[in-house]
Amino acid sequence: MFERHNDFLRDGGTGMRNFVARKLSNGAALQDSDHARLDELMRHWKAIPAKSDIISQGDDPEYVHAILDGISCRYKILPDGRRSIMDLLIPGDFCDMNIAILGRMDHSIGTLTPCRVAYISRSEIEELLFDFPRIARAMWWATLVDEAILREWLVNMGQRRSDRQMAHLLCELYLRYAAIGWPDEFALALTQEQLADTLGITVVHAQRVIAALRQDGLIALRDRQITIPDIARLMEFSEFNPDYLHLPPES
Amino acid sequence: MPRFFFDIDDGLRFTFDDDGQALPDRAAARNMAISVLPPLARDVLPDGDRHAVSVVIRNEEGEAIFRAVLELVAEWLD
Lengths: 251, 78
What we know:
heterodimer; A: about 250 residues; alpha+beta; Jelly Rolls; Arc Repressor Mutant, subunit A; four-stranded antiparallel beta sheet; 9 helices; globular; B: about 80 residues; five-stranded antiparallel beta sheet; 1 helix; DUF6894 (chain B)
């Protein structure tokens, strides 16, 4: 069922590429034994094509999923067929930690771009919680940060102008990638439709906002991916305060 | 599905749509154009006393086929 690869986790022997461990390191001082266990757990993974469900609303999944590569989202489909994206999941993010405790999914999780997804059984999650206190603390930290991000999104979607909303979202993603030590320059591969569903605006509106930000030099497009020429300028424009991401000061 | 292009003018900035949207028919394009105006207005209207946002739909041949305008008029009466 799963592919087994160590190459994906090790970057040519030069260092760790386990982004789950990188992310959790922001929430607790992990030790070698913690890293070793997390490396083992990330070895069971599957490649999932873009625009496919990882788990669907109503499922009672036996695995907790973590994103190793690509971008996924939490979403719900409204009765009129529109999709609302409530969270973007990037490498290092657990999709559904709650499932280990809550059971049935109250929303769906689907890929937006091609993803590599680690499958961790519920019993392995329980083992992390009881036998690896530093990892348990970091997972708690990650859950609390997820809540803080959700609060910030509520403010962002409700109160900011659309161009600032878009800019704010891009600043957040930039910092979240930086916090996992993403090796490449930030380049967001989401489509205008996916960004529109995330911000709760029409795709025509999203297109217009992207064009305006681009005209003002706040973002750039490269191979249809959004890049950020000057993050400080974009943060100033979107009135971005990174406190809610609760990252250690050095990152 | 045919492609429709949505050019938007909010009085401050004109954005020309290079990409377009694939939509089932003209009626769907009209609905899309109208639904984009209120949220767009929310972004730009607070700035002045008189403000209009408009969208023009072009078809694949580049012909303008539809226009919608949302205008705010705000004035003191005393």
